[in-house]
Design goal:
MetI-like fold, 2 strands
Length: 312
């Protein structure tokens, strides 16, 4: 290989690597920095993300940063109210969001793992059709799919009418605007994000290991726990993160299916920005959510890198 070909190869590698980095820089890093600047802005001076940090007032230089937008998230704004000491509506909404995201991830795992396992074990001629069934809901508007559950779970909806017709209940039960409707809607929407990573992991598994376990006297259930589950751990973690992270900041589903008590962080950020018109606090809440999400992602990335290094 001559020097000219080597130079072209290096240029091609830089281009292939550089394009994604430029994309992330423009559409993630720059907006994040603007959001970070707004989160420490004083509303009294207007929301200008490009305003200089060091300003002059009466001939004195000072740093124009307002950290109270962050501290107010963790301060008790109503110590005599129903909230416990040190607990604000923001922390309450964050705990609620984590709770819903956790149970949604768990339900998606319980429902998605058997389907992904069946999909990986089925005939290769049927796999494209089954994958199409998994991805088919994405062809419909997200808003319409969520809104359809209002008609299904309403007091006069499909579920209640079916239960009354079968004689199991005498009057409609409260399904809509409850924990049930929230978990049903979020599980329905995000279950494909669990199935696809699990399928991508399970389809690569050597199923001859299961046959070897059966020959050594292991029961199907024991072989599943000792062989299949450990080998699919990467898919479980990836699918759980793909479900947990968007659920944590979900806005549409709580607005349509959740009640007044189902306040999640996405709704709180919306209210702060558009109802209270407090952009710095909304930006601070968004920054805190991003940091909370990045910490487990960084730990998982480090764990994966160490595991790959040990295997190599």
């Amino acid at each position: 290989m001559n020097l000219e070909s080597l130079a072209r190869l290096r240029l091609g590698k830089r281009f292939v690597i550089g394009v994604p980095f430029i994309w992330l820089l423009i559409f993630f890093v720059v907006p994040f920095l603007i959001l970070l600047r707004i989160s420490v802005t004083d509303m009294g001076n207007g929301v200008d993300p490009f305003a200089p940090i060091i300003q002059t007032a009466d001939g004195i230089l000072h740093i124009a940063l307002k950290y109270q937008n962050y501290s107010s998230i963790f301060e008790d704004a109503n110590p005599s109210g129903s909230l416990a000491f040190g607990q604000t509506i923001y922390l309450e909404a964050f705990i609620t969001s984590v709770n819903y995201a956790f149970w949604t991830s768990l339900l998606c795992l319980v429902m998605g793992y058997p389907f992904a396992y069946f999909l990986a074990r089925t005939k290769s001629t049927l796999q494209p059709a089954l994958l199409m069934m998994v991805m088919l809901p994405f062809w419909t508007s997200f808003l319409l799919r969520v809104y359809a559950w209002k008609g299904i779970l309403a007091d006069q909806g499909v579920v209640n009418n079916a239960l009354i017709w079968s004689g199991l209940i005498q009057e409609p039960i409260q399904l809509l605007y409850s924990d049930v409707s929230m978990l049903v809607g979020m599980t329905y929407v995000y279950c494909p994000f669990m199935i696809l990573p699990l399928y991508a992991t399970l389809v690569k598994m050597d199923f001859r290991l299961l046959e070897a376990a059966y020959d050594l006297g292991a029961s199907p259930w024991k072989a599943f726990w000792l062989i299949t589950v450990p080998l699919s751990k990467a898919g479980i973690i990836a699918g759980s993160m793909l479900v947990f992270i968007p659920c944590l900041g979900e806005f549409v589903i709580p607005s349509l299916l959740g009640g007044a008590e189902n306040i999640m962080m996405g709704r709180v950020v919306w209210d702060e920005m558009f109802s209270s018109n407090n952009w710095p606090r909304a930006a601070a809440l968004a920054i805190v959510m991003i940091l909370v999400i990045l910490v487990p992602m960084a730990l998982y990335t480090r764990y994966s890198a160490e595991r790959d290094a040990v295997e190599d």
